[in-house]
């Protein structure tokens, strides 16, 4: 508009920055400072594109049409009994996941399992809060805009995410939006490759031949297309599936390409594009699972982004689109939201689909008798598999035939898990006697190669389905030596590779959990159940309470997850002993962890001490623990963000007829005057509490009368701590005067 308007905008943004220090705002301001002169030109270029001559424009139009045909439709996983998976326009069914900037991907790649454990770290309220204050959110149309972290316009971008979180779908939508003119028209041509397809190219190639093989319509115009690299974007999807390492570390000796005609291995071509020795100025987008990133040189990428999946609104929208019926989708989502264990799974779009498929028969009544709803992850996957078996085809195999099929698939899955294989060619299926049939399309998917439809690979619908079958096969076809070897690997593994497999192994030992499957495939091995229960019962609680910080505490929580999956209360009772001590202080506990912890507490007769200091527990987490808190003798919730709404749960525990609470620490939990009256009422009905710590909250003189009553009417109190609140000296003196023999009041 004019200089005055520009300065006014600048002043407003700068003032906002001082009150709201968010990375997105910092990035916006820095983009104006560092790239302000080019912003208008760049925005117009992204909107309108380059001016091309008629011949090249016609070539671009044809190329965009080809890409639209390739990515314009989404294909839902093939439903058993149907010859093809359901197809629908990508714009109609695409739910955008959250994408954030990630500077420190190397630190995170080896800490969490890529299926379920990672979900815990993406707990909704934690992520939601961090999106508001710490995390730089990146919309797909900003992947190649100014990067706040690298302080430049990025040419190379890595998008990482765990299995099934939507990397390929995000790329598909990105390409579709480019091809339909919605964003990034500064790229005159976009080239899309999948590492899964590139694996089939064994001989050396040039970039030119690679493009011509995938996009033959460009062959005649390719030299002209490539003559201005700044107008080009190369997308390579699924680096984790590459059979050859991408050599990007400093000092790794290999000859990079200099020209599009240089003949090299495919991964050298990709590395050359990233290193800018080939087509200097071009842009490159890669996707990968986090596990692959640890082997890469981070400095190669100007932007690293992580897909963190769905928050609540996206999950709810997904359920609504899946079920169609508003009432059914609302009821199914409410059930999942309430269970927490299943809800945590649904941050991942693939799990959303599996969960919806498993819950479909539970919420859509058949003859008025919907199936019982699952509570554990193992029960969810049992529901999913039984649903597939019940509805896969008209000609369902006999139980023995079905059992044999699952055994073959199971040993294939088990081999893949122990050897880190996720994609199987036809020879693997033949070696394990797996005959691909409509029955298997609910578990295994065909991956035809883009360039050669005769070459097909296979993979499990999701890594966790592969792990489920790897655990299931031991129950269906017990082989002592294989079971022993697998268990030895699971026990010795410290990186979490077998964590989810172990949960399924524990879950399938429970009679009620495996019963729906036994109706279709016959009895499970009693010997495996005995060995699994024996393995769980051998866990010595004293050893689990490791002094290591925080690895020992997280390991203990992982063991609690095994107990939860097993649903064997007697087993948990025997392992925990009669008066357990539990200390999870400084370990971030999500609501799903609190659900698991509540189950373990429910199996104990008594808990001598439960320390949950600085565990980031909030209202939802405490609500999950509340039914068991009355069993605890010493409860410490120091430095948690509880606030007043959680007092109702504390008070219910204190008023419980069998309450055993003797010491309660609520120091630094954000409690205000509103909580004092409730606490006073609850303690007047409690005869066990002796030590109460209310220090470092925000009580004021307004609650002096309630605090007075609390001290006088609590029959069992011998000590109360009230320091570091907002009491005036007069009220402090007043309350301290209530001290008497047998009751100490500390400020």
From TrEMBL:
NACHT domain residues: 155-291
GO cellular component, as recorded: cytosol
Annotated compartments: Inflammasome
SMART domains with a match to the protein in the record: LRR_RI
Molecular function in Gene Ontology: ATP binding
Main location group: other
UniProt keyword terms in alphabetical order: ATP-binding, Cytoplasm, Inflammasome, Inflammatory response, Nucleotide-binding, Repeat, Ubl conjugation
Any one Pfam family match given in the protein's UniProt record, by short name: NLRC4_HD2
Protein name, as recorded: NACHT domain-containing protein
Species annotation: Chelydra serpentina
């Amino acid at each position: 508009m004019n200089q005055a308007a520009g300065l006014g905008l600048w002043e407003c943004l700068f003032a906002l920055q001082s009150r709201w220090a968010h990375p997105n705002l910092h990035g916006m301001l820095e983009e104006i400072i560092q790239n302000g002169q080019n912003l208008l030109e760049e925005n117009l270029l992204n909107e309108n594109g380059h001016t091309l001559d008629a011949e090249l424009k016609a070539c671009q139009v044809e190329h965009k049409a080809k890409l639209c045909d390739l990515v314009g439709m989404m294909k839902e996983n093939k439903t058993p009994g149907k010859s093809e998976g359901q197809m629908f326009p990508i714009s109609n069914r695409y739910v955008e996941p959250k994408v954030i900037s990630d500077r420190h991907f190397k630190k995170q790649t080896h800490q969490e399992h890529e299926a379920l454990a990672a979900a815990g770290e993406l707990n909704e309220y934690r992520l939601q809060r961090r999106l508001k204050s710490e995390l730089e959110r990146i919309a797909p149309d900003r992947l190649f805009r100014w990067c706040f972290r690298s302080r430049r316009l990025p040419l190379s971008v890595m998008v990482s995410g765990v299995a099934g979180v939507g990397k390929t779908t995000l790329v598909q939508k990105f390409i579709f939006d480019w091809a339909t003119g919605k964003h990034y028209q500064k790229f005159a041509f976009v080239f899309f490759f999948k590492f899964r397809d590139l694996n089939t190219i064994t001989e050396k190639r040039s970039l030119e031949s690679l493009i011509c093989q995938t996009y033959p319509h460009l062959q005649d115009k390719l030299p002209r297309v490539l003559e201005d690299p700044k107008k080009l974007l190369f997308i390579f999807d699924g680096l984790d599936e590459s059979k050859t390492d991408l050599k990007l570390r400093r000092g790794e000796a290999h000859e990079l390409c200099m020209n599009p005609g240089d003949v090299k291995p495919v991964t050298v071509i990709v590395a050359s594009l990233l290193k800018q020795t080939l087509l200097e100025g071009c842009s490159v987008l890669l996707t990968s699972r986090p596990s692959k990133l640890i082997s890469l040189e981070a400095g190669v990428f100007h932007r690293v982004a992580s897909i963190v999946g769905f928050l609540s609104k996206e999950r709810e929208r997904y359920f609504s689109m899946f079920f169609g019926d508003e009432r059914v989708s609302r009821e199914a989502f409410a059930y999942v939201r309430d269970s927490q264990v299943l809800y945590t799974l649904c941050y991942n779009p693939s799990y959303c689909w599996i969960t919806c498929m498993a819950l479909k028969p539970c919420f859509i009544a058949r003859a008025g008798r919907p199936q019982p709803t699952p509570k554990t992850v193992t029960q969810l996957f049992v529901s999913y598999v039984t649903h597939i078996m019940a509805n896969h085809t008209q000609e369902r195999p006999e139980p023995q035939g079905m059992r044999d099929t699952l055994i073959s698939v199971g040993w294939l899955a088990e081999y893949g898990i122990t050897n880190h294989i996720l994609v199987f060619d036809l020879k693997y299926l033949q070696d394990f006697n797996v005959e691909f049939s409509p029955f298997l399309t609910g578990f295994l998917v065909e991956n035809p190669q883009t360039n050669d439809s005769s070459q097909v690979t296979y993979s499990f619908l999701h890594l966790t389905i592969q792990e489920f079958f790897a655990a299931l096969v031991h129950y269906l076809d017990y082989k002592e030596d294989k079971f022993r070897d697998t268990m030895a690997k699971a026990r010795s593994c410290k990186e979490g590779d077998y964590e989810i497999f172990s949960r399924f192994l524990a879950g399938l030992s429970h009679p009620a959990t495996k019963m729906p499957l036994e109706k279709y495939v016959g009895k499970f091995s009693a010997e495996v159940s005995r060995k699994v229960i024996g393995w769980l019962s051998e866990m010595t609680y004293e050893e689990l309470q490791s002094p290591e910080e925080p690895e020992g505490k997280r390991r203990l929580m992982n063991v609690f997850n095994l107990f939860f999956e097993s649903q064997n209360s007697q087993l948990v009772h025997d392992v925990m002993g009669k008066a357990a001590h539990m200390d999870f202080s400084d370990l971030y506990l999500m609501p799903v962890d609190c659900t698991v912890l509540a189950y373990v507490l429910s199996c104990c007769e008594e808990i001598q001490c439960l320390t949950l200091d600085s565990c980031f527990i909030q209202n939802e987490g405490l609500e999950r623990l509340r039914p068991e808190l009355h069993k605890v003798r010493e409860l410490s919730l120091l430095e948690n963000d509880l606030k007043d709404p959680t007092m109702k749960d504390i008070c219910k525990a204190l008023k419980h007829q069998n309450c055993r609470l003797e010491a309660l620490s609520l120091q630094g939990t954000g409690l205000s005057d509103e909580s004092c009256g409730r606490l006073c009422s609850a303690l007047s009905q409690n005869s066990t509490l002796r030590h109460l710590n209310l220090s470092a909250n925000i009580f004021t003189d307004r609650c002096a009368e309630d605090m007075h009553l609390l001290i006088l009417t609590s029959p069992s109190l011998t000590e109360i701590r009230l320091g570091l609140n907002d009491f005036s000296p007069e009220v402090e003196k007043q309350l301290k005067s209530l001290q008497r023999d047998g009751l100490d009041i500390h400020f």
